[in-house]
Amino acid sequence: MDLGMKGRVALVTAGSRGLGRAVAETLALEGAHVALCARGEQDLADATAAVTAAGDGQVFAGQVDMAAPDALDDFVGEVEHALGPVSLCLVNAGGPPAGNFLELELEDWDQAYNLTLKSAVRTCSRVLPGMMDMGYGRIVAVTSVAVRQPIENLTLSNVIRPAVHALMKDVSLVGAAHGVTVNAVEPGLHMTSALERLIAAKIAQGAPNREVVFDQWLSEIPAGRTGEAGEFAALVAFLMSEQAGYITGQSLAADGGMVKGTF
């Protein structure tokens, strides 16, 4: 299936590792010009090389702290100058740190708000007007299954990520009549470095070892396995495709059946 991405400009924030990098590589494979940003210099360099190898489009990369007020706006300006207007956008940022409510300081809440919610507001505010002017755009936010059922020891994510979903729904209402779709995808457990950090946090809280933590999580997933980053990226790519033009304001879980709710 031709997803209709050839020659389009895709912005992938937090695109140097894990799910963000997988999405960047998949969009490049589909023929898009990809702009990716992240904080870590070496990870960004590695991801840029991989994305470049994945497709024949142009690749543009820059170091951006998604919690910084003006960094993303400046980067998108550089992208537009180098590649053209952005018509595909992955709203993504590194997740807030683990911890339960009693362990958190007010500063932790402020930092999580800036990183997780406010960065999504900044990203949508920056790309949506241009997409509406073009009459075409696709915005997909990476969130978490924590928006459907709280995850133990992830209080910040449990509370703040649902606000990102509310934001995506609201933005979808603004963009729909202008050919812009806005959706969210909720990853469950995927084999990424983020999963390893969660395992380390559980061990720090007293879990015996990695195998015990991992086996407990697998027992809660009907599919009996963790997801692959490429599977997640394929779902995002479809939501960003021309064929998905009538899907907007939606949230899809990619979790192997982990969420037990009926919606």
Termini separation comes to 29 Å
In one word, what is the shape?
A: globular
| The level-1 CATH class | Alpha Beta
CATH topology-level name: Rossmann fold
Reading the helices and strands in chain order gives: EHEHEHEHEHEHHHE
* The CATH homologous superfamily: NAD(P)-binding Rossmann-like Domain
Structural class: alpha/beta
The Cα radius of gyration reads: 18 Å
Ranges where pLDDT stays below 50 over 5 or more residues in a row are none
> What level of helicity do the residues show?
40-55%
Structure annotation, total helices: 8
Q: What's the CATH architecture name?
A: 3-Layer(aba) Sandwich
Please, how many domains? Answer: 1
Give the number of DSSP strands: 7
Provide structural commentary.
By secondary structure, this protein is α/β, with parallel strands linked by helices. It has 8 helices and 7 strands; from the N terminus they run βαβαβαβαβαβαααβ. It has helices at 18-29, 41-54, 71-82, 106-134, 155-175, 193-204, 210-219, 229-239; strands at residues 9-12, 33-38, 59-63, 88-91, 137-142, 180-187, 251-254. A 7-stranded parallel sheet has the order 3-2-1-4-5-6-7, sandwiched between helices. The two termini are 29 Å apart. The model has no long low-confidence stretch (mean pLDDT 93).
